[in-house]
Amino acid sequence: MSKKEQWSSKIGFILAAAGSAIGLGAIWKFPYMAGTNGGGVFFLLFILFTVIIGAPILLAEFFIGRRTQKDAVSAFKELVPHSAWPLVGILGVGSAFIILSFYSVVGGWILSYIFRNLTGQLFIEGKTDYNALFDQIISNPTEVLIAQGLFMLMAIFVVRGGIQKGIERASVVLMPALFLLFIALVIRSLTLDGAMEGVKFLLQPDWSLLTGKTALLALGQAFFALSIGVSIMITYASYLGKEQDMPRSAFSVAGLNILISLLAGLVIFPAVFALGFEPDAGPGLVFVVLPAVFNEMAFGNIFFFIFLLLLLFATLTSAFSILEIVVAAFTKGDPNKRKKFTWIAGILIFITGIPSALSFGVLSDVTIFNKSIFDFADYITANIGMPIGALFISIFVGYRMKRNDVYEEITRGSSMSPKLFGIWYFCVKYVAPVAIILIFLQSFGLF
């Protein structure tokens, strides 16, 4: 078997892991989730869950991956052979498969908007009905499937190149570009008259809107945005060298994720409020409200094109990580199998995503528990699969692994103090599982 690949640098790993976290979760999903769930109170819960639950579980996944240097399923098999624990890895791979199947659909929508922007079809004189335009795009079976296919081809092309030459090389270019584009858009949005109302909406909590459902959705957002609970970070960490500072990397990724979510809110909500739109547009916020917002600005077509590029970059870097966990499960660390299985996995994910792609058009009458196929896939992964996966990972590291073994691996290559390790270990062992269970019970009216 060929030598297992590794990240070539510390910054390469951090940017790739941050790229996994900073995707649709931060830029597409966070704004509309915050917009429909109270703004400031949702954002505060999101930060709280990211710090006390998300980041600790992220580091727990890092521990499992680097300890074994194996994919998600094989890692559990090595640590606890002849047990049911590998099912956690299987759950993660399965959830990742489903996530990318509908994630690629949204990636296709972005490509459709970029094409329309470049060809002058998006911004025209007079008022454009962007709600009708969005409906037209997502209900057109030919367009959504072609766009979804193109997006998957882009992800396949990078992942087939491997860790260093594919994922890391792309992330090192795309992530800095993403930050620069964001800064430009935030400055433009905050200079609009009336922008401060949007800032208040995002940063000033209304405690009357605090409910169990809001807490569950904020928890799901923290997991979705950090790519935890589906063992993606177990796979990424399996390519880590032993000299890497895992605690610093984990909290860098969590911090960058909070920062990007904040920047996304500061791009969208000040502009929405300044120009008299409503923040509770739901999943269509980015595709319906934002074009109308930018259409009201000078050089709005240019600024919206920048935003679409930013969204595409972030979506692709997340798609790389999701596809990688599936490919790694197939190849078992053998790079000679990568190209073949990247194509196989990518094609299978595309086929699986077809019902989600068509769920706003020819399959719009098909519902599962009163949800469209797309919404159902999103809900079961973000609000059920990911929290359950995170729960089992926290229980595994906190109760199944020996504390000394965990301490040895976590602090290797790190200056993490015993006291800080103790705080992290307490969060993984007690805070995370209790919080996840309580929020589940509350959301189902059982607590």
Keywords:
mainly alpha, 2 strands, Amino acid/polyamine transporter I, 447 residues, globular
What is the number of beta strands? 2
CATH superfamily: Amino acid/polyamine transporter I
* H/I helix tally: 18
Q: Low-confidence parts lasting 5 or more residues at pLDDT below 50?
A: none
| Helical content (DSSP H or I, runs of 4+) | over 70%
Mean pLDDT: 83
- Number of structurally distinct domains: 1
Q: In angstroms, what is the radius of gyration?
A: 21 Å
How would you spell out the order of helices and strands? HHHHHHHHHHHHHHHEEHHH
Which CATH first-tier class would you pick? Mainly Alpha
Strand percentage: under 5%
CATH fold-level name: Amino acid/polyamine transporter I
Q: What would you say about this model in short?
A:
Its main location: membrane. The chain has helices at residues 10-21, 24-36, 40-68, 72-79, 86-118, 130-139, 141-159, 163-190, 195-203, 212-226, 232-237, 246-274, 285-295, 300-331, 338-357, 373-400, 403-411, 418-443, and strands at residues 367-368, 371-372.
